[in-house]
Write a structure and sequence with these properties.
The structure is a homodimer of 229-residue chains. Chain A is an alpha+beta fold and 229 residues long. In chain A, a hairpin with a 2-residue loop joins strand 1 and strand 2. The first copy, chain A, has 5 helices and 10 strands, in the order ββββαβββααβααββ. The longest helix of chain A has 18 residues. Chains A and B meet through strand 1 and strand 5 of A and strand 1 and strand 5 of B. The first copy, chain A, binds a DNA duplex (27 and 27 nucleotides) through helix 5.
Chain lengths: 229, 229
DNA sequence: GCAAAAGTGTTCTTGGTACACCCATGG
DNA sequence: CCATGGGTGTACCAAGAACACTTTTGC
């Protein structure tokens, strides 16, 4: 408000990309190639560029560092982290985004990627560079909450999926077992959550399961609440 | 990640301060004294200072511009706004905070305040400087949602309040009437939402109402959902 | 025909909604 | 005694939770 020059800060965009893979919740991490925290795992991210919007920057970094298409998967702003000493290079504020991806074969190593890989959230949480463990913790909590009130769970699945696949997403992200019968009724009775494709999938053993596709609904009304732990 | 200088941006903290006053939802606005947008209403806010955390900056600005005690009222990070052209002065990213205040006498004009005042949300929404109308819209939606799942409604009330006061908060923020009987049972049966003080308040006319104080509960379980309009 | 997973139906209980009456005070 | 808002009780209904059996496939 006064006419003196105001503090200028570096602004990064960091991504917490979550997926369900091999039966556990995993996050995309990269191994840092430069100081600070060289050799440590961190969330993918990078500096904002001139003329670029925040979401735009998040999608770009995702593509550059991991080869994932930022436009194709769910991407939402999570929170902004700006503790004065969070980055030893100087004053850097980070806008964190939460991304949800299906179980993709392997993140393709992009031009800027040193060693992007999926890692179990349980394993890396607490071991990340900067304040990225805080960000990851907040991201997981946001994802858990989103499953209650939105149809976001389908973003963890591929184009087509069974009700059992969807239920496993809930069980793995929430870490609690869910009654298959009640779950099935719930998702099939919620208008626009999932749409039957008519096709079926043959498991290794057992009865074939009907395949579904994401429906148009965004909100889950009424919500699917996790019971108090 | 490369060694070239990265883009530096100005970083502001803006506040959407909401209260219920004279039976309607109001927001704290200031009239801008400088260009750009001189003379237009805007949300209170200002630039981050060196060595200062984001929340700390929000509390400071709140005190400076309005005389409200940022430490005393509910303050939560809302979202971050960084569209490239949102500020004509240059690249400025804003971290927005949502604050909830009880119906205070009048915001005291602080040292930096030009003309802080309460204004009906309906009136100023769409007429604010920068992208502050977007921020205010998001803030109102966040507050509405918070009333469903948390005990935040008590932050709109003073130290002591009646169940009728609390119900009016819900009715005004949501814009829908609520059944007084069911509401009363709901809030008194939710453990830790409100605590009886034993005192009573005499209205202008009618039976005295019991007074309550905020309880320790943060979450509202089960939630108090607004029925689909 | 056996193992494995999918799919369906019923009961019970909880919580939400709708609704009508009595109570305590000031004027 | 009347107007005004505070406080309570009850019937009904929707939704979640708990629970057992049948179906379809591969082997």
């Amino acid at each position: 408000m006064t006419k003196r020059e105001h503090l200028q800060v570096g602004l990064t965009v960091d991504l917490a990309v979550l997926t369900v893979r091999e039966g556990i919740l995993q996050a995309l991490v990269i191994e840092r190639g430069n100081d600070p925290y060289r050799g440590r795992d961190a969330l993918p991210g990078g500096f904002l560029r001139a003329g670029e919007g925040l979401r735009e920057a998040a999608a770009r970094e995702l593509g550059e560092e991991t080869g994932l298409d930022g436009g194709a998967l769910h991407l939402e702003q999570l929170a902004t982290y700006g503790a004065p000493a969070r980055d030893p290079r100087g004053r850097v504020v980070s806008v964190a985004y939460l991304a949800i991806a299906p179980d993709l074969p392997i993140p393709a190593a992009g031009s800027d990627a040193r060693s992007a890989r999926w890692a179990p959230v349980e394993k890396v949480h607490g071991a990340l560079a900067f304040d990225h463990s805080d960000i990851l913790g907040d991201a997981v909590e946001r994802a858990r909450s989103r499953l209650e009130y939105t149809t976001l769970a389908t973003a963890f699945c591929g184009d087509v999926f069974t009700i059992g696949d969807l239920r496993k997403v809930y069980e793995i992200v929430w870490g609690t077992p869910i009654d298959p019968r009640n779950f099935s009724r719930k998702v099939t009775h919620t208008e626009g959550f999932i749409l039957p494709t008519g096709a079926r999938r043959l498991p290794e053993t057992g009865r074939p399961a009907a395949l579904y596709r994401r429906g148009p609904a965004q909100a889950l009304i009424p919500p699917l609440l996790r019971t108090a732990t």
